[in-house]
């Protein structure tokens, strides 16, 4: 999803964004309803009325998807998992969780919350439709009955489809929770659930291809070609997402099993806090080509200075400012033990906003770990 997304509001404190691809689906759904489904269900209305109802139904359908994602997000927040944003896009929606669930139970409850919301919404819509049509016999409500029935069917299908046990679908996350609880290994469970998701994507795409081929050969009704195309498209997307998840599992295993001492830069060059910014640029940043240096005084690390700190100072003041004036003072978060995993080091960098950390062993600085050094290590490992 490289195209931009527009923020349209917040819910539960979470930014709600609409990806540009959503507008394509919105137009397609509106057109499908206005030219096919609604004229058959409600004959005799004007084209303008059909388009208005189609657009309203499309908005309500995506509101259902948003509520589905908010179900996930609400339970995730109960487990202190931050939600960066919810994005609506061509295939529905996704809640961006800041970290993985802490336990199989949390994973199960977060995963199942979305389908539960969809199934409850669907049953409420269908129940309201039956009540309005069969019990109350209210006049002038036929349009609401048709839209209510449509929303009910779509939400029920959304809930059931997401329960298919193929990662990254919600059912695949439920499967991962079970495998995690059984095998006590989160990464292995993710890989196994992703494999199931990849196979399901292949089957779905293959079935879609058969439907499209059948319509082209004349063995099936040509009207089914669109359905086959969507199945092929969705299957390919799910298969690709599952394969990507499998690759990420391999990457996380490498990051979890590699120690900081195996990746750190051992020959550390430091600068003095009394050095001018101009001197630091000429004698260190340009000479060594590094993007940051520890700042030491009396063999004690007092801070760190990076190219971002230098660039924040107008060049005309470089000769007058010292490193002490622009450096970021050291804190406990700047130091990390050599026997920590690389993943923990990266988590610390992201959390604190650093691009490098001082590595310590027996309380003494022994090296640096940077994001670029981790990237080079992974590139060499082809992880």
Brief summary of the model shown:
This protein is of the alpha+beta class.
How is this structure best described in words?
- Belongs to the peptidase M50B family.
- It is found in: Cell membrane.
- Pfam families: CBS, Peptidase_M50.
- GO terms for molecular function: metal ion binding; metallopeptidase activity.
- Its cofactor is Zn(2+).
- The chain is an alpha+beta fold and 383 residues long.
- The protein folds into 3 domains: 163 residues, no CATH class; 79 residues; 121 residues, CBS-domain (Roll), CATH 3.10.580.
- The protein is 60% helix and 15% strand.
- It contains 12 helices and 10 strands.
- Strands 1-2-3-4 form a 4-stranded mixed sheet.
- Helix 2 packs antiparallel against helix 3 and helix 2 packs parallel to helix 4.
- The longest helix is centred in the N-terminal third of the chain and has 33 residues.
- The protein is elongated.
- The relative contact order is 0.06.
- The model has no long low-confidence stretch (mean pLDDT 82).
Please write out the topology.
Elements: E1 5-11, E2 14-19, H1 20-41, H2 47-78, E3 83-89, E4 92-97, H3 104-136, H4 142-162, H5 170-183, H6 186-217, H7 225-257, H8 277-288, E5 292-297, E6 300-306, H9 307-311, H10 323-326, E7 328-329, E8 335-337, H11 342-352, E9 356-361, E10 364-370, H12 371-381
Parallel strand pairs: 2-3, 8-9
Antiparallel strand pairs: 1-2, 3-4, 5-6, 6-7, 9-10
Helix pairs in contact: 1-2, 2-3, 2-4, 3-4, 3-5, 5-6, 6-7
Subcellular location: Cell membrane
Cofactor: Zn(2+)
Active site: 69
């Amino acid at each position: 999803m490289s195209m931009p997304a527009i923020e349209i509001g917040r819910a539960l404190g979470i930014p709600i964004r609409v990806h540009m691809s959503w507008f394509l689906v919105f137009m397609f759904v509106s057109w499908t309803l206005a030219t096919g489904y609604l004229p058959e269900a409600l004959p005799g209305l004007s084209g303008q009325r059909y388009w208005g109802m189609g657009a309203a139904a499309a908005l309500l359908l995506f509101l259902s998807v948003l509520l589905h994602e908010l179900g996930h997000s609400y339970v995730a927040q109960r487990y202190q998992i931050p939600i960066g944003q919810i994005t609506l896009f061509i295939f529905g929606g996704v809640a961006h969780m800041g970290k993985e669930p802490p336990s199989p139970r949390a994973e199960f409850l977060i995963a199942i919350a979305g389908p539960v919301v969809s199934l409850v919404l669907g049953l409420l819509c269908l129940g309201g439709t039956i009540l309005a049509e069969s019990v109350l016999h209210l006049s002038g409500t036929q349009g609401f009955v048709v839209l209510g029935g449509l929303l009910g069917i779509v939400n029920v299908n959304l809930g059931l489809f997401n329960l298919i046990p193929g990662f990254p679908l919600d059912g695949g996350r439920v499967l991962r929770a079970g495998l995690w609880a059984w095998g006590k290994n989160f990464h292995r469970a993710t890989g196994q659930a992703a494999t199931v998701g990849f196979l399901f994507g292949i089957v779905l795409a293959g079935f879609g291809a058969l439907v499209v081929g059948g319509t082209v050969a004349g063995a099936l009704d040509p009207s089914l070609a669109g359905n086959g195309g969507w199945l092929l498209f969705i299957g390919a997307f799910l298969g690709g997402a599952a394969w990507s998840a499998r690759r990420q599992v391999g990457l996380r295993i490498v990051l979890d099993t590699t120690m900081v001492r195996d990746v750190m830069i051992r020959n550390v060059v430091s600068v003095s806090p009394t050095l001018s910014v101009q001197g630091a640029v000429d004698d260190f940043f340009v000479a060594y080509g590094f993007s940051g240096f520890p700042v030491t005084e009396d063999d004690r690390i007092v801070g760190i200075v990076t190219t971002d700190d230098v660039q924040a100072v107008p060049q005309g003041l470089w000769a007058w400012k010292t490193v002490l004036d622009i450096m970021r003072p050291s804190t406990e978060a700047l130091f990390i033990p050599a026997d920590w995993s690389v993943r923990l080091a990266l988590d610390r960098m992201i959390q604190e906003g650093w691009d490098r950390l001082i590595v310590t062993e027996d309380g003494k600085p022994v090296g640096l770990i940077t994001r670029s050094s981790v990237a080079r290590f992974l590139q060499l490992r082809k992880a």
